[in-house]
Design brief:
The structure is a single chain. The protein is mainly beta. It folds into two domains: 124 residues, Jelly Rolls (Sandwich), CATH 2.60.120; 103 residues, no CATH class. The protein is 9% helix and 43% strand. It contains two helices and 19 strands. Strand 13 and strand 14 form a beta hairpin. The chain is elongated, with a radius of gyration of 24 Å. The two termini are 15 Å apart.
């Protein structure tokens, strides 16, 4: 029987699993806590569910056959400046190929975080898997009647509001009214690509749901318990198991 044991799990995914042979035998009153989490802030904020929109070329001489520039971003971690550059690059390529003069620029108001888009084409934000919610816009068309379009809502680049550390042998936490295996929650304050280190100053221990540990799985999920990725970055999670009160 172990009175205290430290488990370290390392891998290049947000799901880490380890098998133990022989199994780790623990006391009935044993409990578990997160000691440390280390990774990089490479959690994507743009994915295939919200990475598209299109721009219709305004051409009074060719209204019967409207020209459309389709924009698509690869899954990744983006700041608004990154999105602006990627969109402009695709527009420039389209304009060069089709001899158009399409323009686009997006910026964010630092006071209310609403976005401003300057575009001389018709923005089609009603298409499936559109980026409109990322920009803070409604899912509809925006015609170039005004010099600049202002979004109805704040920019929503960070769809992950909380990252939960789930451990399959832990119990005692709840997500709203449902039981959960969560043992820790955090949100990375570091800039995209920077090192993430989480070392809780006050450890919170959770009771185990088994005392004969032959395997353990730890996973990172978002606030809605949806799995999240990290582009294969290294992830290390260190857990501590001890007897209650020790």
């Amino acid at each position: 029987m172990y009175e205290s044991v430290t488990l370290s799990l390392t891998g290049n995914a947000t799901i880490l699993s380890v098998n133990y042979f022989p199994s780790i035998n623990l006391y009935e009153d044993s409990e578990i806590a997160l000691l440390c989490l280390q990774s990089f802030n490479s959690f994507p904020n743009i994915n295939e569910n919200k990475n598209k929109f299109s721009i219709q070329i305004v051409d009074d001489e060719n209204n019967n056959t409207p020209m459309m520039c389709y924009i698509k971003l690869e899954e990744g971690c983006y700041e608004i400046e990154d999105i602006n550059q990627r969109v402009k690059k695709q527009i420039d390529d389209y304009s060069s190929e089709n001899l158009t003069k399409l323009t686009f620029d997006i910026s964010v108001d630092p006071n209310d975080f609403r976005s401003y888009i300057k575009c001389n084409g018709i923005l089609h934000f009603q298409i499936p898997f559109c980026m409109a919610p990322v920009f803070g816009f409604d899912k509809r068309q925006y015609k170039p009647e005004y010099a600049i379009h202002r979004s109805e809502k704040a920019v929503n680049l960070n769809t992950i509001n909380s990252i939960k550390v789930m451990c399959n042998i832990a119990q005692g936490s709840f997500n709203n009214h449902l039981q959960s295996h969560s043992i820790y929650e955090f949100f990375p304050s570091e800039r995209t690509g920077s090192k993430v280190m989480q070392t809780p100053p006050n450890l919170i221990y959770y009771k185990l749901n088994k005392t004969n540990i032959d395997s353990i799985t730890v996973q990172l999920v978002d606030q809605d318990h949806n799995p999240i990725g990290n582009f294969g970055e290294a992830l290390t999670i260190v857990l501590h198991i001890k007897r209650y009160g020790s």
